[in-house]
Every structure is written in structure tokens, then in C-alpha cells.
Amino acid sequence: MRSKEALSHYDIGITKFDDEHREILALVNQFIECANDHDRASHAAAVMAAIQEHTDAEEAFMREIHFPYLDPHIDEHTRIAVDLTNFLQIGVELSSLILRLKLVSDIETVILSHNDDYDRQYAEFFHRCKHDSSTK
Ligand SMILES: [Fe+2]
Ligand SMILES: [Fe+2]
Questions:
Q1: How far away, in angstroms, is 134 Cα from ligand 1 center?
Q2: Per-residue pLDDT tens digits for 101-125
Q3: Of the ligands numbered here, which is closest to the C-alpha atom of 23?
Q4: Using an 8 Å Cβ cutoff, are 94 and 57 in contact?
Q5: Cα 56–129–136 angle (5° rounding)?
Q6: 118 contacts 21 by C-beta, under 8 angstroms
Q7: Could you tell me the pTM of the whole model?
């Protein structure tokens, strides 16, 4: 699990989405503590529901601000949803705490890489547009 300071490096400067990123990562981390496969299965479903809700909100926001690279971002949401579903399905079967720690760290890496490589782009576009309209 990354520290608060380490996570702040991934902030994109839009509070709603930064908060959602942190909530998703906290939820992913709770997966480590799920003691049996039944709990892990229901927690995995909750994680994927939170991710789906978040990516839907991001896509709506990108449409609203007319972000020009919406399609590649949606493709990437689709791709990581498959990866994350696969990771979590593996995790449901993992009774070893050590292996779940490793898996959660891999899931965090997928999510944080997406924040850095993709989410930062629409945030920068949004901030630039806001800045341009305030200086006109
Ligand atoms: Fe995001
Ligand atoms: Fe995204």
C-alpha cells in the first residue's frame, strides 16, 4: 500500500476524481483483509462496481469538456477493466495473504499508471481551457 505522500504524486487536480481514485485504492487494499473466498468474491464485485461508476463519470466529464482524446481513453478504460477483472478473479482464489498483498500491489500499479498516463491528460486539458477562458 502506497503512503498518502506517494499517492499525492498521482493527483490530477480535480478534487472529485482525486477523491474517487483514493476511494478505489482504499477499497482495493481492503481486499487483502478478506478472509475467505466468499468475502473476496463480493469485495471484488464491489471494487469493479466502484471502478465502473468512476470511469462512467470520467467519460461523461470528458464529453462535457469536449476532450479531444476521448476515444483512446475509453478504449483504455475497457482494456484495464478486463485486466482488473482478471486480477480480482485470481485474487478470489488466493488464500495466501502474501500473494494477495502482491496482487493488490499489481492492481494498484495498473490503476496508478492509468491515472498518470491518461487521467492527467484530460485534467491538464480542463485546466488549460479554464485558464484560457479566464484570461480572455
Ligand atoms: Fe480515473
Ligand atoms: Fe480514466
A1: 26
A2: 999 999 999 999 999 999 999 999 9
A3: 1
A4: no
A5: 150
A6: no
A7: 0.92
d(CA 99, CA 104): 9
Helix (H) or strand (E) holding 96: none
Go through the domains of the chain in sequence order and give each one's CATH number: 15-134 (1.20.120)
* pLDDT tens, residue by residue, 69-79: 999 999 999 99
Cβ(74)–Cβ(59) below 8 Å:
yes
101 and 32 in contact (C-beta within 8 Å)? yes
Query: What does the alpha-carbon distance between residue 113 and residue 123 come to, in Å, rounded to a whole number?
Result: 15
Ligand nearest the Cα of residue 19 is 1
How many Å lie between the centroid of ligand 2 and the Cα of residue 93?
A: 28
